[in-house]
Design brief:
With 436 residues, the protein is mostly helical. It contains 23 helices and no strands. 32% of the residues are buried.
Length: 436
């Protein structure tokens, strides 16, 4: 919606420049043609712009249909509460009508955008509907590096982000929201370090990836990039991460240093042990240990149970992930917990889930969390139990869907901690009440 508003304002501004006295365009064209018949005619529109207009029209129609669909859902589920929620429903309908009216007007505006040659810039905003489309919209020589960083698949970034932002939320004083400045830097760091981890992982596994169907098209395995280019890119990623780390305090910098060695060495673990997922758990959850220094400036013991709980979580979801490639891993000689556990995987997943939930309870007690936090963790336990029941370790699509669900689970845990922290009593308020 905001994109369309911006485009409408651009079109209005450009039309004002061309017609400063606000004269109707068609009338002005007729007058000028009558007064000056020698003026050359406008050139025919390019076929590319016509295709762009069709593309934008299709996007607008899909948005209009989506708005009507969600309005019907709202009315359906709020119907039993019609009396109490009538004001809310009454306020939604005018908004939907205005949105529909705006969509129809926007389709008319597209023709003028086409004439003003603003269609290419408009298409960029409309085309990027997902991270994969963002990668495809990048310049061609950037795309292999973006795919090497898995920029088009943000699930792994969410899994790396979860322990850090949950730790930041847990370390935040009671009654306050976590710092947006810290969270923004953590998000950037998660994207950069996840990309660095994928780069060095593909550098180690270039020969293995060529033998595995799912990874054969990766930039290094397919030959789009060579090993030297990947190493230069990896060094650049670590440089950016290091520069970002310097914006924090010295304690955070010292705690973060081992993470570089862990990221570099993790890909080699699958060659020597059936527990590479345990090493991965140490690597990608290091942000939980860094959270307290980021917020308070000092390391706190309360971060240790949180770190261990996320380690159990990584063992849980990455074992599910490894079941997608279990046959290829057996063929090429790669080790994993999926191969080690075999048909007993669900039993081990139950153990990892229990360890995660138990340690989250301990972490909450250590951080003086209240009843809302513990109720939220109980719901997390139910979600994990339900996921194990529905898991089919012999179906790669099912394993992938459960793996993706865990990225949402991490963000849900963050929301639970933030919400519980807001309703937790501040220690200074309690002390003041006791004194008075």
């Amino acid at each position: 919606m905001m994109v369309l508003l911006n485009l409408s304002s651009i079109q209005l501004f450009s039309s004002r420049l061309k017609h400063p006295f606000n004269v109707n365009v068609t009338q002005q064209t007729k007058l000028s043609s009558n007064n000056n018949n020698t003026r050359p005619k406008a050139k025919p529109l390019r076929a590319e712009n016509n295709r762009n207009v069709d593309f934008l029209n299709a996007k607008l129609k899909s948005l209009e249909k989506g708005g009507a669909y969600y309005l019907n859902i709202i009315e359906k589920y709020l119907k039993p509460y019609n009396k109490t929620m009538k004001p809310f429903i009454g306020s939604v309908k005018p908004i939907a009508k205005q949105a529909k009216y705006f969509m129809s007007k926007s389709q008319i505006k597209l023709k003028q955008l086409q004439k003003d040659k603003l269609i290419p810039s408009a298409q960029v905003f409309f085309k990027v509907g997902s991270m994969q489309e963002l990668v495809e919209a990048l310049p061609r020589h950037w795309q292999p590096y973006a795919r090497l960083s898995r920029l088009g698949s943000p699930t792994g970034t969410y899994l790396i982000l979860a322990p850090a932002i949950c730790g930041v939320a847990m370390a935040t004083p009671a009654g306050y929201l976590p710092s947006l400045w810290i969270l923004s830097k953590v998000c950037i760091g998660a994207v950069v370090m996840r990309g660095a981890g994928c780069t060095i992982n593909d550098w180690w596994d270039i020969d293995i990836d060529r033998k595995v169907t799912r990874s054969a098209n990766r930039p290094l395995a397919s030959g789009e990039l060579d090993r030297q280019q990947a190493l230069y890119y990896f060094a650049a990623q670590l440089t950016v991460a290091g520069a970002l780390l310097l914006t924090f305090n010295w304690t955070t910098f010292v705690v973060a240093l081992p993470c570089v060695a862990l990221v570099t060495l993790y890909p080699a673990m699958k060659r020597y042990t059936y527990w590479p997922q345990a090493f991965l758990g140490v690597t990608i959850n290091w942000g939980a240990l860094m959270a307290w220094p980021m917020v308070t400036g000092s390391f706190q013991l309360a971060s240790i149970p949180l770190f261990l709980s996320f380690m159990c979580w990584t063992l849980y979801y990455d074992t599910i992930y490894a079941h997608q490639d279990i046959h290829d891993d057996l063929r090429v000689g790669v080790k994993s917990t999926a191969i080690l556990f075999g048909d007993d995987t669900k039993l081990w997943l139950s153990r990892f889930a229990s360890g995660m939930v138990g340690l989250l309870y301990v972490s909450g007690i250590a951080a003086h969390q209240g009843i809302l936090y513990h109720l939220g963790i109980t719901y997390i336990a139910y979600r994990l139990y339900q996921e194990i029941q529905l898991l089919d370790i012999h179906s790669p699509p099912n394993c992938w869907s459960k793996f993706v669900d865990n990225s949402r689970l991490g963000l849900l845990l963050f929301v639970i901690i933030v919400g519980a922290n807001l309703f937790r009593f501040r220690k200074d308020t309690i002390d003041t009440d006791n004194v008075s």
